[in-house]
Amino acid sequence: MTLHRNDPPEASLYSQQSYAGLTFPGRGHARGPAVPTRGGRSGQDAPPEEGVVDQALRIVRNRKWVFLQALVLVPLLALLFSLLQPERYTASSTVLFRDAEDLLDTQGSRPTIDPSREAATNEELIALPVVAARAAKDLGRGTTGKQVEESINVKSTGEADLVEIEAEADTPKRAAALADAYGEAYIAFRREADQRRVDSALRLVRANLSALSPAKRSGQDGQELRDRLEQLQVARAVQTGDAELVQTATPPSSPSSPKPLRNLLLGLIVGGVVGFGLAALLERSDRRIRDAKELEELFELPILTRVPRSEGVTASETEGGDTWLPSRDAEVFRTLRANLRYFSVDEPIRSVLVASALAGEGKSTVARNLAMTMASMGDSVVLVEADLHKQAALPNGRQPALGLSSLLTGANLDDCLVNVPVPSSGGGADTRQLTMVRAGPPPPNPTELLESTRMRAVLEVLESRFNLVILDTPALSMVSDALSLVPSVSGVIIVCGLGETTRDAASDFRKQVALLGGRPLGLVANFARPVHGGDYYYYGQSAASASQ
Fold first, then answer.
1. pLDDT tens-digit readout, 187-201
2. Hey, what domains does the chain have and what are their CATH numbers?
């Protein structure tokens, strides 16, 4: 019996025929959702968590242009800054501090001095502005104390009583003169300070001697004061300030700054840190999924195949979608076909829903190319365009008079089937047929039609007439049309466009399929990066190879 337009939707959709040698399962088998293990590999251990190094490599790979720009620009700026700086020269002199005997101590009661404290005192004294002012005065040529102070760097050499004076100037001779002048100015400053101390003692001794009576002055008291006076005069004459310039500065042969090579290396380090920081910040703020491994872990499903962003893959979008794939790109969908066979061991896969979370992820292209590939290999397959919101054009530009919308409103199934010739996978001039059910004229109520009993009956009949039914639906998060089909099919193939799918949309999509009782079979990572190897393209490990 053949279904006509006046027949009710529940009637048979095609004349009863016998198919020799083929057995089709009934609709009574359960279609509950499969419970995938971690990574979607049943019976295998869960893949290890992503380590710190792997995470860092993923961030750099996903944001390589940001990282590379920082890695190039920062060193170039550092090098340019170095080359624009004037050359500066550094010379150094060394001052030795001496622990001289205090000639004013007549009682031998000088307290013990802490060496570390004395060294710190000397370092503070040598850095006083008065020393810089004296050095500027000795240098002349309009040199100011501020200029000397800014050019001098005093460094202690550790526990030794030595201080290194570094001077920086625009010429080697000027740098050496600054270092020596500063050291000499400090020694003179200390010497004059000690001499003033001795002069005070001399004035006191002379006053005491003058105050003595003539008898005492010629006696023992006078003699002691005269001896003390003589000692102080000798001490004043030999006073050195307890410091000595033990090494004078030598004019340097090469500039100390700028250092282009050092700054370039530092720029590379800073550029790498800045680039990685920016990449990590962008990666954290960007919710799009760019890595197939991340996609696999998010859904806990295996990657069935990786589809490259190729002109050959998207060419079937033109001319009504009947353009054949190049052999290199068709191999991707042969892999997908082979991987689907692994799900037919316990329960036959008679119908699959090709779905995606968002529009523009290549779902229709994947469904069409999979159907064409299977048909070219001799499989009995039918492609159903279940997106009733759009109307696909035929290769000649005409619009189909009949389609799925017509079939769901009473048309005969055989009148809605369209055969599209595809080349045989074996090569040669032989062609095979891909059977399609076009979307048909857009109806006013697409959701009601897809949820109807008629749609379930159509699916049952197609499953009995063909080995596999592939349904191309609109994005599940955009419209609710395809939601009713999820529990009615044998499995769902999830298409995710890398760089297009967001983590939030993927998470919501996964929950939605689970709530509807769908059976997710695996993932198709669309827009994957091809890895060139000779004349071939590799798109990563497939589910089939992973299970071996």
1. 888 887 777 777 788
2. 86-105+113-257 (3.30.1890), 289-546 (3.40.50.300)
